[in-house]
Amino acid sequence: MPTEFQLREYVVEDGKWDEFIEVFGKVVEARTAAGFEVVGVWTVPEERRFVWIVSTDDPGGIEGASLVYYDSPERKALSPEPASFLTEVSTTTMTALPGF
């Protein structure tokens, strides 16, 4: 299976940005341990929007690596729950277009 990517877009609850960023570092550690690579992270501060892209070469693709991630002790230990800081979540799984 070719490398899969996932675009992850969040809107962070008003007043919770700093707390979210603090727990996000732990999210990255847990995702990396589960076989993900963080391609990049972007923000649109005036919209409280947080955007990041992860990738994986896991034979099961994003879905397979996500199962490993959510079942991992690192993910289960995350506190507070990262999603508790988010008012919107959108994800899109993608593959690269060869030659570009």
Word description of this protein:
There is one protein chain. With 100 residues, the protein is of the alpha+beta class. The relative contact order is 0.31. Helices cover 32% and strands 35% of the residues. Strand 2 and strand 3 form a beta hairpin. The longest helix is centred in the first third of the chain and has 17 residues. It contains 3 helices and 4 strands, in the order E-H-E-E-H-H-E. The chain has a 4-stranded antiparallel beta sheet. It has one domain: 2-Layer Sandwich (Alpha-Beta Plaits), CATH 3.30.70.
Essential attributes:
alpha+beta, Alpha-Beta Plaits, globular, single chain, 35% strand, 100 residues
Which H/E pattern describes the elements?
A: EHEEHHE
Largest sheet: 4 strands, antiparallel
**Which class in CATH terms?**
Alpha Beta
Radius of gyration: 14 Å
Q: How many structural domains?
A: 1
Total helices: the number is 3
Strand composition percent: 35-45%
SSE layout and pairings?
Elements: E1 4-12, H1 17-33, E2 37-44, E3 49-56, H2 61-71, H3 73-76, E4 86-95
Antiparallel strand pairs: 1-3, 1-4, 2-3
Question: What is shown here, in short?
Answer:
This protein is of the alpha+beta class and 100 residues long.
